[in-house]
Write a structure and sequence with these properties.
Blueprint (H helix, E strand, L loop, with lengths): L1 E4 L2 H11 L8 E6 L6 E6 L7 H4 L11 H9 L8 H11 L18 H7 L6 H7 L2 E6 L2 E6 L5 H11 L3 E5 L2 H15 L6 E3 L7 H6 L10 H15 L2 E8 L3 E8 L2 E9 L3 H11 L11 E9 L2 E12 L2 E10 H4 L10 H11 L4 E6 L6 H12 L6 E5 L10 E4 L8 H9 L5 E4 L5 H12 L3 E6 L6 H8 L4 H7 E13 L4 E4 L2 H6 L5 E4 L10 E12 L2 H8 L4 H10 L5 H10 L5 H7 L4
Parallel strand pairs: 3-6, 5-6, 14-18, 14-19, 15-16, 15-17, 17-18
Antiparallel strand pairs: 1-7, 1-11, 2-3, 4-5, 8-9, 8-13, 9-10, 11-12, 12-13, 19-22, 20-21
Helix pairs in contact: 1-3, 5-8, 10-11, 15-16, 16-18, 18-20, 20-21
The chain binds zinc ion (ZN).
């Protein structure tokens, strides 16, 4: 089996296709440095005019390999700002006279560590390049292009050129960027950043691997095998998260499977640094930075299946704690019929989602499957005739036939600003990842009152409280009542393994609720001896009819609303869960874990 990382370019392309295209135009000008015979390349970014004195100071860094930059450029041209094309036009008009030297930014990026490594002699140590602050970049027509942080390093560049036997052309690169590139070059040289890695067949025994000398200098560096092994093992076990947790005397690796954390492996503290570095290198994070939280991602293909892994690190007193979230794109999308609803819940759901306008809110803690449910609904509603647009943070899966927009607060793309632009795109159905503030809620309500079906989530525990939360956020009760079709609270419980399921006594508590039998999984190979395999949703559906809407407008408390709803067939999460226990879908322990008795 081969585990390989996606090219960064592909990543950037994907982003580009999704977000608004915003290719920063850059121009380069060559300028003769008096009498030297070498030319200095200047990179111009967004500024309209540039003084020579300024361009020597810094290059604002159009480096596409920088993760943050790539993300910013994918969505920064949202609204109201001067479009890059206009900037480019303006630059030409001011007439600097060097247009013919301009190149498309795409063809002019900084070379990759692999390309750099290919041109420098192996005798040249990266340490000396660091010390001298010079970065050999490429050789074209015998001329060596060298990156330096400022012109006072010009002599260093010349010496480097002499040692490599080439005339030199220099390019100013901000020092921190230059040092970061040298760091990556170093990683590449030491073999840590290999782009394609083989996953060994003998990787089953992770525990043995964890005890190997991670720092050993052999070709198949054990730390690489260890990290690959962890990822493979996690995917095989259907884990959604891998946690790397440093403690005083060891590093604990845990997997989250079907929503529950399991200890997987303990690694000696001495292996922490290489392990952490390896993961950060794969995720294109800054391995020299340990004190600041970072984000990154790793794309792997496994037997032809694409798996996206989001990586985040936070500093703790014992070093960096790393969480890897595995987004298995092939397995993430479920259809409505896969969610585990009873015929009755399913029926209610089918009815409410086919109302052409209004709002449906989904509530529940993080990890309760709200997004999965909304995706399933969007898939059910997706036909060529309807225009579906989503605003999400993050986009968890690609939905065929749906325009998905990524929130990017750094670039000014918030839920509310994205929604305003989206409404001009004539959508029929809108999915808003989360209603965090009044603005977002207000736009959502307005959209649902003006002919759109709006799906969104709120952080409340039960379904009825969603109405109250909406009003607490500043939405007028009559607007809340007028727009809301239903609110749905949900939880995910683990499904008892069908292979080793056996009947058990339901116990006093459940019997007092009329449950006559219960089941559990004994544990077998099929379920990794956990007794569970997969998960299933429990849905509490609060549907607003005219009576209930009236009660919402007159600000009735949750308890009164619940009483009214009960008469119309409303059942709580707990009650629906009890039914699933009795049918042997899940265990009493699971139900108690995710909910409580009323
Ligand atoms: Zn089993």
């Amino acid at each position: 089996m081969v585990l390989e990382t996606f090219g960064e370019e592909e990543e950037a392309r994907k982003k580009d296709g999704k977000g608004k295209k915003d290719k920063k135009d850059k121009k380069e000008k060559d300028k003769d440095i008096a009498g030297s015979g070498v030319s200095q390349k200047e990179t111009e970014t967004d500024s309209l005019s540039q003084e020579n004195a300024v361009f020597l100071k810094e290059d604002k860094g159009p480096f596409p390999e920088d993760g943050a930059t790539a993300q910013d450029t994918s969505s920064s041209g949202m609204e109201g700002s001067l479009l890059p094309d206009e900037i480019y036009e303006a630059t030409i008009k001011t007439g600097s006279g060097h247009e013919d030297e301009s190149q498309d930014a795409d063809h002019r990026g900084i070379p990759t560590p692999r390309e750099i490594a290919a041109i420098i002699p192996s005798s040249l140590s990266i340490d000396s390049l660091r010390q001298w602050k010079v970065l050999p970049m490429k050789i074209e027509e015998d001329i060596l292009e060298v990156g330096i942080p400022a012109m006072d390093h010009f002599q260093n560049a010349q010496i480097l050129g002499a040692s490599m036997g080439h005339p030199v052309e220099v390019r100013i690169i901000p020092e921190e960027k230059l040092m970061a590139l040298l760091r990556r070059l170093y990683d590449f040289r030491s073999g840590v950043a290999d782009e394609t890695v083989e996953a060994m067949e003998g990787i089953e025994d992770l525990d043995d691997l964890a005890r190997e000398d991670v720092l050993s200098d052999s070709v198949d560096v054990p730390v690489i095998r260890l990290v690959n092994g962890l990822i493979l093992d996690a995917i095989r076990q259907r884990a959604t998260d891998i946690h790397v947790e440093p403690y005083e005397d060891q590093v604990q690796i845990r997997f989250r499977i079907d929503g529950v954390l399991h200890d997987r492996l303990q690694i000696p503290r001495s292996h922490q640094a290489p392990l952490t570095s390896r993961i950060k290198v794969m995720a294109r994070m800054d391995i020299a930075e340990h004190m600041v939280p970072q984000d990154g991602r790793i794309g792997v293909t496994l037997g032809g299946k694409a798996v996206d892994i989001r990586v985040s690190s936070v500093p703790t007193q014992h070093g960096e704690r790393i969480a890897l979230r595995v987004l298995d794109k092939g397995e993430g999308l479920l259809f409505l019929e896969d969610l585990g609803m009873s015929a009755r819940e399913r029926n209610v759901m089918e009815n409410i989602i086919h109302i052409p306008h209004g709002m449906i809110l989904f509530t529940g803690p993080t990890g309760s499957g709200k997004t999965t449910t909304m995706y399933a609904i969007l898939q059910a509603l997706s036909t060529p005739e309807v225009n579906i647009i989503t605003v999400e943070d993050p986009i968890e899966y690609d939905l065929p036939g749906v325009a998905q927009m990524q929130v990017n607060e750094k670039a000014g793309v918030t839920f509310s600003s994205a929604l305003r632009s989206i409404l001009r795109q004539d959508p029929d159905i809108l999915m808003i990842g989360e209603m965090r503030d009044f603005d977002t809620a207000h736009i959502g309500v307005q959209a649902s009152l003006t002919g759109h079906l709006v799906l969104s989530t709120l952080h409340t525990n039960d379904s009825i409280s969603a109405v109250v939360r909406l009003i607490d956020m500043g939405i007028e009760p009559y607007l809340a009542a007028g727009s809301l079709i239903a609110s749905v609270a949900q939880r995910l419980v683990r499904r008892i393994c069908p292979v080793c399921r056996e009947e058990v006594d339901p116990g006093q508590l459940l019997r007092s609720h009329g449950v006559s039998k219960a089941f559990r999984g004994r544990g077998c190979d099929h379920c990794n001896w956990t007794g569970y395999r997969g998960r299933v949703g429990i849905y509490e559906q609060f549907v607003l009819d005219e009576d209930i809407a009236e009660a919402v407008i007159s600000s009735q408390p949750v308890s009164a609303l619940r009483q009214m709803a009960r008469k119309k067939g409303f059942r709580t999460l707990w009650e629906i869960g009890l039914e699933k226990v009795e049918k042997g879908v899940t265990s009493p322990e699971e139900l108690l874990r995710v909910t409580s008795e009323d």
